[in-house]
Design brief:
- The structure is a single chain.
- The protein is an all-alpha fold and 267 residues long.
- It contains 9 helices and no strands.
- Helix 2 runs antiparallel to helix 3 and helix 3 runs antiparallel to helix 8.
Length: 267
């Protein structure tokens, strides 16, 4: 009976916090996009327009050259994955300050503020990813998908990595303003090693095993393999990415707990 009571209490707390996160997401949408014009649609249109523009430019440029490799899928899977983890870090930087007044509400926790922003960002970029993929497949810009299972697994692992990275960066920026200044140049340095602009098989053989140690690389390789199949040889390590993401989430949550205690002391 006691166990059943604890389970019911846990489920009730989970329902309350889910409603809190939903309310915070609605508040964030209104704050960022307003109630007029495109409003909420801009959450999807912003990454869509950027990615579609890049893909069409690459596809048009390489159409005049004798390149058999599917450049449209390569460009799309590169830029959309960069938007996923980079925008997440940018969105969770200094997430507490504009929402600090909400912390006076008993049911609003620090993790809710971070999760609301993170889920909203993931919703937008995932919606753009699915919508652009469908449009380009129906218009024959993309070749038929090889295996959607690899795409889903790669995208979920990438979103998980982006969430952990966002929690870590967001927490650290609340501890020190220096981290906020360094995050943007660090994110630029991460671009060339993220796997967005190269295939692992293009690297010298001695470097391939080390490239897979970068979690974004495995995710991008999985997504590209799902789109292109045997057009290239993928290199990835799913157990390593899972282990890395668990460690990243754990570290981010630890720093988040520390930040939460500092805020309570300031009250």
């Amino acid at each position: 009976m006691k166990i059943n009571g604890e389970v019911k209490e846990f489920l009730n707390s989970l329902r309350v916090q889910s409603r809190v996160v939903h309310a915070l997401m609605m508040r964030e949408i209104i704050t960022r996009f307003g109630r007029r014009n495109l409003g909420f649609l801009w959450l999807f249109l912003e990454p869509m327009l950027f990615t579609m523009g890049v893909v069409l430019m690459w596809n048009t440029f390489h159409a005049t050259r004798d390149i058999k490799f599917p450049i449209a899928e390569f460009a799309f899977t590169g830029y959309i994955t960069v938007l996923c983890w980079r925008n997440m870090g940018n969105r969770l930087v200094k997430a507490i300050e504009p929402n600090l007044a909400l912390m006076y509400h008993q049911n609003v926790k620090l993790i809710d503020i971070f999760f609301a922003r993170a889920f909203l960002e993931l919703l937008g970029v995932t919606g753009a990813f699915v919508f652009i993929s469908c449009i380009f497949l129906f218009t024959n810009v993309f070749t038929p998908v090889y295996d959607i299972f690899y795409i889903v697994i790669g995208w979920l692992l990438l979103c998980w990595f982006a969430l952990g990275l966002g929690l870590l960066i967001g927490s650290l920026t609340e501890i020190s303003d220096v981290i906020e200044r360094f995050w943007h140049p660090i994110s630029y340095f991460m671009l060339p090693i993220s796997g967005a602009f190269f295939l692992v098989q293009w690297l010298p053989e001695s470097f391939r095993q080390y490239a897979v140690y970068i979690p974004m690389v495995s995710c991008v390789e999985l997504i590209r393999y799902g789109f292109l199949g045997n057009a290239f040889t993928p290199y990835y390590d799913i157990p390593y990415v899972i282990s890395f993401n668990l460690l990243l989430m754990f570290t981010g949550m630890l720093f988040l707990i520390y930040v939460g205690r500092r805020i309570e002391l300031e009250y």
